[in-house]
Amino acid sequence: MRYEKADNLIQLALELQAARGGLSLADIETKFAVCRRTAMRMRDAALRNFPQIEEVESEERTKRWRLPAGTLDRLVAFNVEELVALEAAVRLMERDNREGEAARLAVLSTKLRALLRPDVACRVEPDLEALLEAEGLAARPGPRPCIQVTVIEDLRQAIVTCRKVKLLYRNRRTKKTNERLVHPLGFLHGHRNYLVAWHEHPKANDFALFALPHIQAVQITVESFERDPAFDLNEFASRSFGLFQGEPMDVVWRFLPEAADDAAEFVFHPSQQVERQADGALIVRFRAAGDLEMAWHLLTWGNMVEVLEPKELADMVSGHQVAWPALP
């Protein structure tokens, strides 16, 4: 058996033990990025090598399999790269003003390191510190919004329990603070941090974004709400270039040949299509809302990009693009 096949088999066994509700063939396809035929071969190999695997009884027509808890405990170990990834996640959460999640990940990291054998821990610790220093995460300065940790914790609890909340919210333009009754659905994190919620109000009754730094207080009510099964947070986010929602538009950018290679290394939007031109320029097309955020981003490219569509966006950046010095 090739080494990568053995790795996949062990990883599949671990996934089968971790998934309390079991894994279906479709789950295996997704997790390992394989076709249905390969997923079936992987399942069959797991069944041959781990006779403890049991079929999960459910009301679904889809078959699911799992390994009983504890079957593979002695096979579970942690290497330094995995611990570095977890520690890096802690620092990224802290940098993005998500202290609550950072604290939970830090506790998880401590628990995992406590499970290491003393001799392994002695080898891992120096490498862990060296790799984290090399990542440079702690050395990356930059502005970040001030968000109350208690606000995030209360909202997260309301999301999990599907409880309506009353927000004491400060309007960005008027600076007035008013009460908002919302159904919290999730968070969007980027250069700004927002709560995605259904705004329950006669003049609203729609999905809306609430800037987390502007939420002064959160009151979780006793009244519950039902999540719209058709609402998908990822789909909602992908409608826009950044975070601002609006009417989607067809966008076409042309990066000059001098910047085309750099631009080709970016994914500007999940729906983008790229095309190299004969002169070396790069055409990027996608459909999304958020012309203001697009303009902000386009200015970072200076005069190396031209907006072909829409005209409104071209007018926004026209006259403001400069010739930035070339990066080393």
What does this molecule look like?
The mean pLDDT is 81. A hairpin with a 3-residue loop joins strand 4 and strand 5. The chain contains eleven helices and eleven strands. It is an alpha+beta fold and 328 residues long. Helix 1 packs across helix 3, helix 4 packs antiparallel against helix 5 and helix 4 crosses helix 6. A five-stranded antiparallel sheet has the order 6-5-4-3-7, with helices on one face. It is 40% helix and 22% strand. The two termini are 46 Å apart.
Summarize the structure.
With 328 residues, the protein is an alpha+beta fold.
**Share of helical residues:** 25-40%
Distance linking N and C termini: 46 Å
Structural class: alpha+beta
Number of helices: 11
**What is the averaged pLDDT score?**
81
In order across it, which strands form the biggest sheet?
6-5-4-3-7
Return residue spans where pLDDT drops below 50 for at least 5 consecutive residues: none
Q: Estimate what percentage of residues fall within beta strands.
A: 15-25%
Shape: globular
Order of helices and strands: HHHEEHHHHEEEEEHEHEEHEH
